[in-house]
Amino acid sequence: MDEHGSTIHWKKSRLRAFTLIELMIVISILAILAALVIPSMAGASDQARIETMATNVEAVRTQIVMHASSSSYPSSVDASWFKNSKLPRHAWTGEELVVEAVSLGADVIYPETKTYDPSVGGAANAWYNSTNGNFCARVVTQKTDADTLRVFNDANKTSATALTQTQR
To answer: What string of DSSP letters covers 88-133?
Structure first.
């Protein structure tokens, strides 16, 4: 009772909650948005890897030219040429490049094997021909050979026409 002797009637506030249907609609909308956004983000991530690898390949090529003498290219790619005496990182693994140095014909401009398996520790993920100074990063195998070739070409700024191509 209050001071006037009347009974106090408390109004119950009605709590408002989402119904099951409303929750299902919100979850469906979020799922549709995720289905639209996630693939485009994955594609952007792959493109970023390719561009990063192309930048790193260009940095190595520049150093090879800088360390070439008037009569020959260096016999290997030396980590001391780079900051902190470390080779650039491979864009797919984040680990330092592992360079396979070869001395092949002057017309050999691409590695015979253009891919590598990142799960194999210490696998050569780059290739260097000391005869002509050509350097290429190997890439991770893609879903199709055509995709693998495209990624190899984009990452190395080259124009190989086949995964088996080694010469001009």
So the answer is: PBPTTT-SBP-EEEE---TTB-S-S--EE-TTSTT---EEEETTTT
| Cα distance between residue 131 and residue 120, in whole Å | 28
The residues with which 167 forms a beta bridge, in sequence order, are: 108
The model's pTM: 0.74
Cβ atoms of 139 and 118 within 8 Å: the answer is: no
> What angle (nearest 5°) sits at the alpha carbon of residue 14, between those of residues 13 and 18?
145
Q: In this predicted model, what pLDDT tens digit does every residue of 20-77 receive, in sequence order?
A: 888 788 888 888 777 776 665 555 578 889 999 999 999 999 999 999 988 899 999 9
**Region of residue 85 (left: phi > 0; alpha: psi -120 to 50; beta: else):** left
Q: Residue 119: exposed, middle, or buried by beta-carbon count in 10 A (0-12, 13-18, 19+)?
A: exposed
Q: Which DSSP letter does residue 79 get?
A: G
